[in-house]
Every structure is written in C-alpha cells, then in structure tokens.
Amino acid sequence: QKFRDLKIPCDAIYLDIDYMEGFRCFTWSKEYFPEPKRMVKELADDGFKTVVIIDPGIKIDMEYDVFREGLEKDYFCKRADGPYMKGKVWPGECYFPDYTRPEVREWWAGLFKELVSEIGVKGVWNDMNEPAVMDVPGKSFPPDVRHDYDGNPCSHQKAHNIYGMQMA
Predict the structure, then answer these.
(1) Name one GO molecular function term (predicted).
(2) Which tens digits make up the pLDDT trace of 12-44?
(3) Which of 41, 76, 121, 156 is 20 to 30 Å apart from 133, CA to CA?
C-alpha cells in the first residue's frame, strides 16, 4: 500500500526464493505466505501483478512431490557414466530436469498450473538456468552431463545455450 500512498509507479511485485518452503520450487512458505491466493488477489486489487522466481534445481527430498515425480519418471539430467547430475544450489543438493526432452517440458509446464490458474500469479522469473551449480568448477554443468536433445543425445556442451530456453 505504501507504494500507492507515495505514488511510486509500480506494476509488479517480484518474489525471490524466500516465498518458497525451503527454496523448493512450486511451494509457498507456510510461515511467511500462509495464504498465497489471498495475497496475490489483494495485490491485484491494488493494481500489482505478482511474479515469482523459479529455478531448475529440484531439491533431493522424497517428501517433495516435484522431486519424487521427476525421479519416478526419470526426468533428470544424467552424467555420462549413469548417475543423475547432482549439484548444490539454494535448497541444497539438487537434481536438474532435462528440458531437452519433450515429456519433461510438458511435465514442467504442468507444474505452473496451480501458480497461474489457481493462485493468480501473472509472471515467472526463470533464474539460475545456465544452469548454475554452486559446487562444481565453472559453476555450471560439467561437459559430461548428457541431454536427450529431442532424441539426439548430446553433451551439455551442445545443449548449454538452449537449456534455459527449453526451461521456459
């Protein structure tokens, strides 16, 4: 309300990773955002659009639905020698979806339904989709990470520049 009271022009409120429960994408902090739908509606009533951040790193946690479904469907990027690409980002140890697979892109897009259709979020800030990884040399995927690349398997060196675009 202070923006409006002071006549500060503002069309959108961007929520960084702190809106999430434990930095898990597609979740809301129960402590700080107990009623996200109501908050988003109240912001909209005041003329603000709500934009949320989403990162590709999915926390390794069997209690986290997004992780569990991605794991069950084998949707995460793998290293050349077979194990999933694991790296540390904001939520801790994470796996990363292989957006170069059409079925992964479809799954990922479906995860936005609640944010957009039910809660009323108007925009998404895709971030860390280089993909950034904090605990590896170069701070991104190593070259031995493999991608499906729409049925034409390749190394991350080839897929690097499209990874973020495919996330969108």
Answers:
(1) hydrolase activity, hydrolyzing O-glycosyl compounds
(2) 999 999 999 999 999 999 999 999 999 999 999
(3) 121
Instruction: Give kind and range of the element (H or E) at residue 125.
Output: strand 123-126
Q: What share of the chain is helix, strand, coil (3-state, %, to 5)?
A: 35, 20, 45
Collapse the DSSP code of 137 into the 3-class scheme (helix H, G, I; strand E, B; otherwise coil) and give the result.
helix
User: Which residue, chain included where needed, has tokens 């108007």?
Assistant: 122
- pLDDT tier at 1, thresholds 50, 70, 90: confident
Quote the CA–CA distance of 130 and 150 in Å, as a whole number: 19
Question: Percentage of residues in the chain with pLDDT exceeding 70?
Answer: 100
Q: What is the CATH number of the domain that holds 52?
A: 3.20.20.80
H or E stretch covering 105: helix 102-110
Instruction: Tell me the C-alpha distance between 78 and 41, whole Å.
Output: 40
Give the structural domain span for 109: 2-167
* Gap between the Cα atoms of 28 and 115, Å rounded: 10
